Amino acid sequence: MMANNIAVVLLSGGLDSATTLYLARKQGYKCFCLIFDYGQRQKKEIEYAKKIARAANCPYKIIKINLPWKGSALLDKKIKIPKLANLRTCELANKIPSTYVPARNIIFLSFALSYAEAIGAKAIFIGAHVQDYSGYPDCRPQFYRAFKKVVLTGTKAGVEKKRIRIGTPLIHKTKAQIIKLGERLGVSFGLTWSCYRGGRVPCGECDSCYYRAKGFKEAGIKDPLKK
What we know:
Layout (H helix, E strand, L loop, with lengths): L5 E5 L4 H12 L3 E8 L6 H12 L4 E5 L19 H10 L10 H16 L3 E3 L15 H14 L1 H4 L5 E3 L7 H11 L21 H13 L8
């Protein structure tokens, strides 16, 4: 498959990746989504990611990988999902929260890069942004600058000067700005899931729920998941 407007989009089921998908599509890309089943404690986000891809009329693949060493509250049931108070403690101490999954974005981007080379894609999009999970090292601009060098030096496409762009369009946006952008693009936020727990409704206590609620409040938009 060869085309100049093909993109691989990492789709998690959250509102950031959904907005990124709709933005890439708006920019004229034919998007192919990658959804990862990496042993996360709750699988609900995978089902939501599938819903988002279908709503955007984009094909998707589910990639199942195993991280038996765990090392994260999102993977290991023995580690409690931190509540807001724990998040604040991490922020004040400048520590990386326990919800960090070791090298997750490096792993995901490596799969995406292989997929992009195989189908002749010209771009990879990921919905990372520094305002949200400031404690995650793989959400920082300097990480993506470094990964671009990996693309140039470690792939056939890079050696042959066939550019594969790493798109991080949300990297400097706040959650409220992302929500406003998503609304303009027509993202169905009711099809997105942010909570680290896979309950019937969002727990409202984990850091992901906190940032989501804060973003909707600051954007002046009602979260459709909140009844």
